[in-house]
Amino acid sequence: MSSVPVTTWSLEQTSPADLLPAAAPEGDVRIVRAEVPSPEFSRFLYASVGGDIRWTDRLGWTYARWQEHLDRPGVETWVAFDRGTPAGYVELEPQDEGAVEIVYFGLIPAFRGRRIGGHLLSYGAARAWDLAERWPRRTPTKRVWLHTCSKDGEFAMDNYQRRGFKLFDTKVELEPDVMTPGPWPEAHRA
């Protein structure tokens, strides 16, 4: 199997004041927390958002592994709906010393380019900052961080920086050149 170089950038906010919210998009776009841990729904979101940009690390997870991950205190999934249809999601994972990672964030291909992404990222970052209010045993958030890579969408880095995230690390590594897992080759923006 051949390999390709992949650049990974890590970005952070160190204060809630760092967040620069995007305007809400026009139309009926709602963001709702998926409060009932559902491996089926989480796997659907993961595969639908990341299928065309080679998200593969969780595709082999068993149902039990998904359930174990989602049951961890403080792990949250916030889902954007456009007129009742799932459009994308942001997954938050608390870590030690008041850090919260935005582990996954993105939109299903048909919903990209509609100004939903900036709004969803703003909302997700705000929920990372107030996560301890929903999980009283958690340390208050002192840092929100994420990573993006050269495989992600062409506007990902710009969106993160426009929301106030600052670059703190860059790495280049060789990764296996895997086939795009889907959702379908003909999936496109509607």
Automatic annotation (TrEMBL):
GO terms for molecular function: acyltransferase activity, transferring groups other than amino-acyl groups. The keyword Transferase applies. The keyword Transmembrane helix does not apply. Residues 29-190 form the N-acetyltransferase domain. It holds the Pfam family Acetyltransf_1. InterPro entries: Acyl_CoA_acyltransferase (IPR016181), GNAT_dom (IPR000182). Keywords: Transferase. It comes from the Bacteria. This is Acetyltransferase.
